[in-house]
Predict the structure of ABC transporter substrate-binding protein.
Amino acid sequence: MKKLLSMMLALVMVFSLTACGSTDKSKDSSEGEKTVYVIVKVLGNQYWSVVQAGAEKAGKDLGCKVVIVGTAAESDIEGQVRYIQDAISAKADAIVVAPLDRTALKNPISEQFTSGTPIVLIDSSVEGEDYSTALMTDNVEAGRMAAKEMIARLKAKGVAEDKEGSIAIQAGSTGSMAINDRLKGFNEYWGENAPAAWKVLNDDIKINDGDISKAVAFCQDFLTTYPDLIGVFGPNNGSTVGFVTGITEAKRSDLTMVGFDFSKEIEQMIRGGEYDVASIVQRQYMMGYDGVKTALELANGGKVENKIVDTGVLIVDHTNVDSEDVQGVINPGK
């Protein structure tokens, strides 16, 4: 009986050692894989889907786990703060985030950055410098480019410089640093170069919170309220889609439109040739890919050379939409 018990005890010990060895081996094989959280502004939005594709490709190419989350609306600032907290709770090695609000996200981002978590901002920034680096468009310059493009188009189509005309603007958010900088650049260039009779409706900028139905309704409001409307400017993707939809539904081919980004809606408008339209297109795929790449490098102990990295923009219209440069940006990886 004693001999039998001794044999059974020995077998239990061997099994236990084998099981622990297997667990330890599994842990060793995975401990080199880093986890990068990517927190976009609006999950499922066409613009952010391209960012997501870039981030996912980086994860595959570089061998890290990429977790992508995002809110349902640009107004859900509390939701984005929770995602940052969730990333920390999940022991993320680094975080890539597109801040919804420059002020409200300052402290949550600063708290994690100063505690040692690499924080890479994309698309938009926050107040202060408590983050690792920011990969984004030079938004003030992009806004100036948009104003320059609209003035040139209005003059090219023969709009009289002494004729009073209004330019309507709607935006996705009042707290987005990217949007605010674009509006700043637009108005700076407009004030310096546009005919005095052409007025930007800065006292009636409408905020759609990234809601496309709101954006379409706001476009319709502008068309009804301002009979002297000569142009519209959408400084972000959702606002641009709203203007495109409202203008095409109303068949207002007399208007000039300058938007941002390259949704399927604005692509159809550009290719159709009926409307006077151009869009400022960002390299958001690069933001997603290089955002993850940079975050991974930082998580592995690397350093960044520049606090701000300008990812650049292109002006796209019917004359260059099929050019190699533009196609490389709007259809990356194809």
Summary: The longest strand covers residues 35-42. The chain has eleven helices and 13 strands. The CA atoms of residues 165 and 228 lie 5 Å apart. Confidence is low (pLDDT under 50) at residues 1-30.
